[in-house]
Specification:
By secondary structure, the chain is mainly β. It contains one helix and 15 strands. The model has no long low-confidence stretch (mean pLDDT 93). The structure holds magnesium ion. Magnesium ion binds next to β7 and β8.
């Protein structure tokens, strides 16, 4: 008896240890296999009523142009009280090259943007002088073309430098493909813009990023900008905050293009 008792208790102890280990293992497996552990119930996303068709503004959009007037816009330039000088007719706004570009009255940081444009059917010219306009995703000054331009151009059958064709981030980002439609047909841009961030001392904290769909086709995939889009010279960043959006009135001699259905959702 004296010799068996310790043996029994050792065996019993080993069994207990085994059972305890198995229990821990099963418990750990149950934890891993419990779907509730990865289910999150807050915050509940806001309810947004989508447009009746893709491309129409959802209920939470800021409508920048619905075909009626350009009240949400002003003329570009230092006189910020000057009204947008483009003609609105039949639900569309047509560029007036003498009146200059138009700038939103509101400023934005990060956003989703939808805009539609049409190169006129009778367009003439070539290269950069054929239906040139542009969407400045952030217009950061009241003089000249300061900011970040998403190019608008007739690139249906029109050769130019590829980092300046439709769908390009001007002189920085070549579009992934060319999904342009013929002159005379409406085309759409859908943009996700992440503004650059700057430190107190003016240096860059994080660069601007942009994703662009042209006619529903991805042409810029989370593209990182190197700075403002310049006609001459290398891009650079200069500190700015929220900024308006500008539609460009390019000075070339080709027939002016038109815009319609422009809306934005701040992010
Ligand atoms: Mg342009």
């Amino acid at each position: 008896m004296h010799t068996i008792a310790p043996l029994v208790s050792r065996k019993f102890f080993t069994l207990l240890l085994f059972l305890f280990s198995m229990n821990s293992l099963i418990h750990a497996q149950n934890q891993q296999g419990d779907p509730k552990l990865t289910e999150v119930y807050t915050p509940v996303p806001n309810i947004v009523t989508p447009g009746n068709t893709v491309g129409q503004p959802p209920s939470d959009a800021i409508v920048l142009f619905d075909g009626k007037n350009l009240d949400q816009w002003r003329a570009e330039g230092t006189d910020t009280a000057r009204k947008a000088g483009w003609k609105v007719e039949d639900g569309i706004a047509t560029v007036d090259k003498h009146a200059g570009g138009i700038v939103t009255r509101q400023s934005f940081t990060d956003y989703q943007l939808h805009a539609e444009y049409r190169i006129p059917e009778n367009i003439t010219g070539s290269g950069q002088a054929r239906g040139n306009s542009g969407i400045f995703l952030a217009c950061v000054g009241n003089e000249g073309d300061q900011g970040y331009e998403l190019q608008v151009l007739d690139s249906y059958n029109n050769t130019t430098y590829v980092n300046g064709q439709a769908g390009s981030i001007y002189k920085q980002g070549i579009p992934l493909v060319n999904p342009c439609r013929k002159p005379g047909e409406w085309q759409s841009y859908d943009v996700v813009w992440t503004a650059p961030r700057f430190k107190e001392d003016g240096t860059l904290e994080s660069p601007a990023r942009v994703t662009v769909f042209l006619n529903g086709v991805l042409v810029q995939n989370n593209f990182e900008l190197k700075g403002q889009t310049l006609y001459i010279g290398k891009p650079f960043y200069k500190k700015h905050g929220p900024a308006p959006i500008k539609l460009q009135a390019h000075g070339d001699k080709s027939e002016p293009i038109s815009y319609r259905n422009i809306w934005l959702r701040p992010l």
